Amino acid sequence: MKLDVQYRAFSCRLTRPLRTANGDIEERSGFLIRISDGTDTGYGEATPLAGWTESTDACRAALDDAVDAASNGQSAVLDAVDDTAAARHGISLALGDLAATRDANPLYRDLGALERVPRIPVNATIGDGSPSETVDAVERAVDDGFSCCKLKVGRDEVDEDIDRIRRVRDAVGPDVDLRVDANGAWTFDEAERALDELDDLGVSILEQPLPAGALSGLAELRGNGVAIAVDEGLLEHGVDAIESAQAADVYVLKPMALGGVDVARRVAAWVAESNRSAIVTTTIDAVVARTAAVHLAAAIPNVLASGVATGDRLADDLARDPVFIDGGTAVIPQTKGLGVENVWTEP
Ligand SMILES: O=C(O)CCC(=O)C1=CC=C[C@@H](O)[C@@H]1C(=O)O
Ligand SMILES: [Mg+2]
Questions:
Q1: Cα 37 to ligand 1 centroid, rounded to whole Å
Q2: Cα–Cα dist 72/95, whole Å
Q3: Domain span holding position 262
Q4: Please, is 212 exposed, middle or buried when counting C-beta atoms within 10 Å of its C-beta (0-12, 13-18, 19+)?
Q5: How many domains, in total, are found in the chain?
Q6: Quick one: 163 and 39 in the same domain?
Q7: 153-163, pLDDT tens digit by residue?
Q8: Residue 35 Cα, ligand 2 centroid: separation in angstroms?
Q9: Is the CB of 154 under 6 A from ligand 1?
């Protein structure tokens, strides 16, 4: 089928930078994609992030190839972006939105959900900061109804991080689910030392304590009360290698970095076959990709609280957010397709 593929660049600033052990995220720039079959239209988003996907230039070049391939139909368009994760995410999402819109299905049903899913659990995302900033941010999140908060660690000394988490635990009590994400910043010894303390503090999940390559180290860290999650490591190794190394309890799925919600859905199926749990997060994307991640999470049975409640970190966005964050859950859009409206306004 002949398709019309178009894209345009966008840029959204964060209201405040997300501080991580791997640097600060201050702005998200990418490409909004529109694919039409002459009757229906689908939208996608390709928002590269340094260290996680191809560069902005490589993403743009791949999208240009996809535009050129449009007269040759859907598989040619997908082939054009096969080696560029963010571009593939954007194109495959626009095609998925187009198909779901045509079928009058919410996207998550086309991604395999067998029944209606009203909501999914979500976590609050708390960037690295001073102890008092962290306590304030977690208290605000709990006041807003979140029962799960993911804290960034790994920029400072381990003892300082532990002290910060202890202050958070003391402030919010035992019932709030705390996770931490070190973005690969720790050595094995630091991670081992941190784990004992994190266990005592009732932290449920430690995300990527060691660099992405360190599978055997991750395997050795497993087994105390804190579940070990892979994020960067999944992109480097894939599920098979991680399972062979027995290196993870939990998999973090970032559709933008994996090459699309369709790819991420397949990865989630392998994760479930291995009896592991999945968390869906984004690369702090704009509304089109963020909403797609929400649909993906809705399509994964028993998905853990997911990192998709980041819309309020953007100072501006591509369109109105169709996902209502309510009491630590995201309410799933039930309209056809992705459910993001008026995203492509004519200049
Ligand atoms: O998972 C979340 O709560 C939100 C997303 C998030 O934490 C991240 C998005 C982008 C880059 C990363 O530093 C970070 C992560 O590592 O998970
Ligand atoms: Mg992470």
A1: 34
A2: 14
A3: 119-331
A4: middle
A5: 2
A6: no
A7: 999 999 999 99
A8: 31
A9: no
